[in-house]
Amino acid sequence: MNRYRADHVGSLLRPPELREAPGDVQTQNKFILDVLRRQKDLGFNIFTDGELRRRGFMTDFYDSVDGLDMDGSIARAWQGGTATDRLTGLVVERIKQKKRLTQHEADFLKQHAPGDIKMTLPTPNQFPAIAYKKGLSDRAYPTYSEFLWDLVPLFKSEIEALVKEGVRYIQIDAPRYSYYVDPKWRQYIRDEMDVDPEAALDEAIRVDNACLAHVSRDAATLAIHLCRGNNQSRWYAEGGYDPIAEKLFNQLNVDTFLLEYDSERAGTFEPLRLVPRGKTIVLGLISSKIPQLEAQEAVIRRIEEASRYVPLESLALSPQCGFASTIKGNLLTEDEQWRKLELVVDTARKVWGTA
Known about the structure:
Elements: H1 16-20, H2 25-42, E1 46-47, H3 59-64, E2 65-69, E3 74-77, E4 84-87, E5 90-97, H4 103-112, E6 116-122, H5 127-131, H6 144-164, E7 169-173, H7 183-191, H8 197-212, E8 221-226, H9 245-251, E9 256-260, E10 280-286, H10 296-306, E11 315-319, H11 334-352
Parallel strand pairs: 1-6, 6-7, 7-8, 8-9, 9-10, 10-11
Antiparallel strand pairs: 2-5, 3-4
Helix pairs in contact: 6-8
């Protein structure tokens, strides 16, 4: 049973004061209380802290382990924009955990959230492609796979701890699955990682399942979010879910899939025919990348179109991604962000009668 018809991926735009003092806990607390209030006022039944304590959606991991070189030695290009980022977090030694990933965030939310809490974590699958550099990292881990599996206990223990502490919604953020829908990135996996893409997809699913193993399904919603890149309104992959749908929907042991569907880059709804009964699909029909507000009538028509493949009672609505995968945020204003989230709640109420 889906508890939440109006959903959002988690991250929210940082106010200028917070961008200027990103590590100031009192400033973080002030704005987290504000975004909790805004979510409640709009009518959401699930609450996040907007990831306002993070520099990016993966930085809790970087801050919680030793063994990474953070000097930013590799450039990373994005589509849909001219900026080039530097990759940080290259693995140079065996990973050693030095603290919990999200306990500091969850403790504050448990005290102040007006309803159920969603906590977001990156999948371990994020890291081999961006953190493992041949000629450097292989001194610590001979293969990508060995590095990947060494991360599983860290994420598994964090998820188990959060559920035990009463967090009702755990979302794994997994943009890396978009590598398997885009021909150019499938070729990258072959050429640069020297791995067969289908074998890599199979391993990715096994890794995420291992992180979620033994978590009570009655205690929490377990979800995974897929997108094709979102940093500062940019993207890096395109292609429909067709190449991964059968394996993803039938083998990945989650209750809910939050799927990007705000542009033609995501393909059609047809792969949703492979979703097993009892799984929830959260349709990411509202763009967090652009300021223009979607027409509610068009969003409702898209939901109706998706319901040809998945029963309406197994669908929900959200933006296609967060509004700030990194502290810099996407190319829209806070007011535009909140109008989009208001649209999510209002549309959910019209379609399902509840948020």
